[in-house]
Amino acid sequence: MSLPLLLQMAQIYINHAPLAAGQDRREQTLTAAERLCERVKTDCKDTHLIREAVLMQALCHLSLGHGEAVLDLLGEVPRLNAPDGTLISQAYQLLGNAEKAREVLQVELYQNLMAVFHTLMCVLQSNLDRLETAERVYLRADSLAQLFNMNRLNPNNMAMLYALGAQMYQTGGFPEKAIGLLAKYADVCIHGFFPVSLRGDDFFDQISGWLAENAGTVPRSETVIKESMMTDVLQSPVFQPLWAYPEFGKVIRKLKVFIGGN
What's the CA gap between 142 and 124, in Å, rounded? Predict the structure, then answer.
């Protein structure tokens, strides 16, 4: 019997377990599904299929009340872009650790927020030559950033968003709007950017331990980062025409003072 078919059978068992006549029959059905998933894991070489089997197996264990088995399968914290955070949280809830359950959900939400925001910026960058589309993407990303206090959580993301937005407006023929966003870019760089790190806030108030273990270190020095704020963005050729505007000169001077230039 093919392994994808075994996985489909396991899914059918899981879906129909709640309809089983009695608790014993329900547990037998879930156990049968769990064993099918284990066979797929053992015999399969397709990583995608294995991952599906692991998630189904975790769901079986959760339904059977085996919280520790879920954590053994999935780990103690959710992986980025993996749909396992809810299962991990429910496992902790099952084990009576409500605090850890809430922490796991915050970590999952934080990771997904950063992933969505990064994707929006990629979409924005790929549409810089299509002002109408790019502006819709920018406004959604900016709304998301304001809603979740991205200035606090990840100021580098906000600096990148304003820089891309400025490039969008400059390319689209709106230099005043570009300068307005470059002014916001400079403000983000000056206020609260350093020390460079991912952070929580009063909403994400249970992720500090996870960030300490997973955020890593910044590979560049503060001096190099400050210099790149000027050279990589404000002195980019795309903004060369803006030197004719006094307001752009004010942005340049403000950032130069911050980075210690003349």
Answer: 11
**For residue 62, how many C-alpha atoms fall within 13 Å in the half-sphere facing its CB?**
21
Indicate the pTM of the whole model.
0.84
DSSP state of 21: S
Mean pLDDT by 10 residues, the chain (262 residues): 88 90 92 94 91 94 95 85 85 95 93 94 96 97 97 93 97 96 94 83 93 67 81 90 94 89 52
Are 90 and 65 in contact by the 8 Å Cβ rule? The answer is no
Domain residue ranges in the chain = 3-96, 108-259
Residue 249 DSSP SS3: helix
Cα–Cα distance for residue pair 166/158, rounded to 1 Å: 12
| Alpha carbon distance 147, 191 (integer Å) | 19
